[in-house]
Amino acid sequence: MEFVHFCFFISCISGCYSAAFLHTRTIPSTITLTGCQSDDDSSYWTLDGAILRVKGTAIGDSINEHVRILRNNALFINVTSIYVDGVYRCVRRGGSVDSHQLTVEVPPRLSLIVNGEVVEEEPFYIDVDSNTTAICFAEGSKPAVNLSLAVDYKTLDRVEHSVQLNPAVNKTFDVTVKATFVSSMESGVVSCWTCGNSVTTSLVMRYVTYGTTVGVVLPCRLLLNKVVFVHCGHC
Fold first, then answer.
1. 28 CB contacts (<8 Å, ≥6 apart)?
2. Is the pLDDT of residue 59 over 70?
3. What does residue 83 show for φ and ψ, rounded to 5 degrees?
4. Burial zone of 80 (CB within 10 Å; 0-12 exposed, 13-18 middle, 19+ buried)
């Protein structure tokens, strides 16, 4: 999905005009930026201030994989990486500039840690009527997502919440939610999900308490033994 906003303003100081466009894209998608063609081939594109065209090629290894400059000087962008996020400007002779702010939304990679161990298979086992610590981790999203943690479809309110810049990928965020719960059920689910960005992501894992068997009919729709949230929120 793409959201485009248009602004037009006139600079009374320089005497030239500029247009500003705001674009939002999710991964994967494409976008073509136009309006930079000139009769004498003097116009050029920049990304965050760096000139994109040097003898017809885009600069930077990470950009070369995702950006192509077409014959009409339009810019074709394959939005498969956060590296194409930024401000694109078409600079023309005389100093007039068109600006395109491209915001790339990146869905997070979700993981669940219970009592210090990463949950990779289900069901996982916990002690009945004992404190269980669950951590939901959303890695590498843009923007920082709203992250919720629930047990048996009840959102845990008393949680520790943190947001940090991802150290490996610039412009993305890591979000952590940590909580402690006690379950007296034979089985159920621990779930974390994100809301607030274009892509809603959920992770739902089934648990079983020690010494019991799975015998509870879960109230949500099941798909391949995984609980799927039809909407962002409670079942």
1. 78, 79, 80
2. no
3. -65, -20
4. middle
Instruction: Give 177 or 193, the one with higher predicted confidence.
Output: 177
pTM of the model: 0.71
| pLDDT digit string, tens, across residues 7-38 | 444 443 343 546 889 999 998 899 999 888 87
**Has residue 172 got a pLDDT over 90?**
yes
Comparing 134 with 10, the larger pLDDT belongs to 134
Share of the chain above pLDDT 90, in %: 42
What are the φ/ψ torsions at residue 203 (nearest 5 degrees)? Answer: -135, 120
Neighbour count for residue 12 (Cβ, 10 Å): 6
Tally Cβ neighbours within 10 Å of residue 136.
25
Q: What one-character-per-residue DSSP string does the chain give? A: --EEEEEEEE-TTT--EEEEEEEEEESSEEEEE-----TTS--EEEETTEE--BTTB-SSHHHHTTEEE-TTS-EEEEESSGGG-EEEEEE-TTS-EEEEEEEEEBPPEEEEEETTEE--SSSEEE-TTSEEEEEEEEEEEBSPPEEEEEETTEE--S-EEEEEE-SSSTT-EEEEEEEEEE--SSEEEEEEEEESSSS--EEEEEEEETT----PPPSS-EETTEE--SSSS--
Contacts of 206 (CB under 8 A, 6+ apart): 122, 123, 124, 187, 188, 189, 214, 218, 225, 227
